[in-house]
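thought: fold this chain, then report.
action: predict
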Amino acid sequence: MVELDFSKSADGLIPAIAQDWKTGEVLMLAYINEESWKLTLETGKATYWTRSRQKLWVKGESSGNVQLIKEILVDCDEDTVVFKVDQVGDAACHVGYRSCFFRRVEGGELKTVGERVFDPKDVYK
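observation:
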């Protein structure tokens, strides 16, 4: 198994960027620990560590918007990864957008440039 360097952060977490494997669109940034890394490799489904809930999180376990791993890139320091994924379902973002990066800075303000594809109140009950 490929070993990553989880020792560089006090909490043992490293960044994982999820990117659409076909379009290159950046979908989200999350964090992984050793356990979520192993599960991602074993299952082929993007598995993260949620800092807010302090637990493992298989992307899409609640919403159905699963991320299937197509390719994994590892940076030169072995402390950041890019998951190139097949985003099953319309959205990677928990607030209902395809990408978590649905806003752009314009004139010192945030402008929504993405389209909401679901209402989170309907999905997360």
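thought: worth noting. The chain has one domain: 10-123.
final: tokens above.
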